[in-house]
Design a protein that fits this description.
- The chain has 211 residues and is an alpha+beta fold.
- The chain contains six helices and ten strands, in the order βαββββαβαβαβββαα.
Length: 211
């Protein structure tokens, strides 16, 4: 199941809120050696701000098995701040429209392959479902091209490539892409993954029925 967590929910979702920082530490720092900030087994950065929304996958309501962070680009955009050369049309960053950025997508690598695949599908579907609930026009981000293909496109998403493939850090092929949020996109993801509504939070599903 997917829980939507924000800073204002910390009092009731503390274990999951801290758990997603711990998962990110294990996956990005211990496993992939990212040169990012950490403290006491928690990975965090400047985009962990009050505007951030965390889509957290959990089976028991306590342990975080996967996470995807979202935030409106008007409050900060990693792609614009650190990788603008990956975007051909820089007017994208003017935030004319309801554009959000997806970052820190990760899944516990210790899980069996079938479980990891199920969590991938759920997190991708949650991005679309959440986007529809907030009238988001597009979700943008930068990832290794293999992740764009095996996680997002394999889940049924039609991606718009925003610029060239380049070498960044230890990744030979990285690219910026956008997901257009629409009912048609949602129907494709549902058809491929077999999922319907994946977010359990009543506030999100009450904003706009997307199932």
């Amino acid at each position: 199941m997917i829980k939507v967590i924000t800073f204002k929910d910390i009092g009731t979702t503390f274990k999951l809120f801290i758990g997603q920082y711990q998962l990110r530490y294990r996956e990005f720092m211990q496993r992939q050696n990212y040169a990012v900030k950490s403290m006491d087994g928690l990975e965090w950065d400047n985009y962990d701000a009050p505007a951030a929304v965390y889509l957290v996958y959990t089976d028991d309501g306590r342990q975080v098995l996967g996470v995807s962070r979202l935030a409106p680009i008007e409050y900060g955009c990693m792609l614009a701040d650190h990788f603008p050369e990956l975007v051909d049309d820089k007017t994208l960053f003017d935030a004319n429209g309801n554009i959000w950025e997806s970052t820190r997508f990760c899944i516990d690598h210790r899980l069996p392959a079938a479980k990891r695949q199920a969590i991938c599908h759920a997190l991708v579907a949650a991005n679309i479902e959440f986007g529809l609930s907030r009238d988001v026009e597009r979700i943008i981000g930068v990832m290794p091209t293999i992740i764009l293909r095996t996680v997002f496109e394999r889940s049924g998403v039609l991606l718009d490539r925003l610029g060239p493939v380049q070498h960044v850090g230890d990744h030979n092929k990285v690219q910026a892409a956008a997901i257009t949020i629409s009912k048609a996109q949602w129907e494709r993801v549902k058809a491929v993954t077999g999922l319907s509504s994946v977010i359990i939070d009543t506030e999100v599903t009450r904003r706009k029925h997307v199932a």
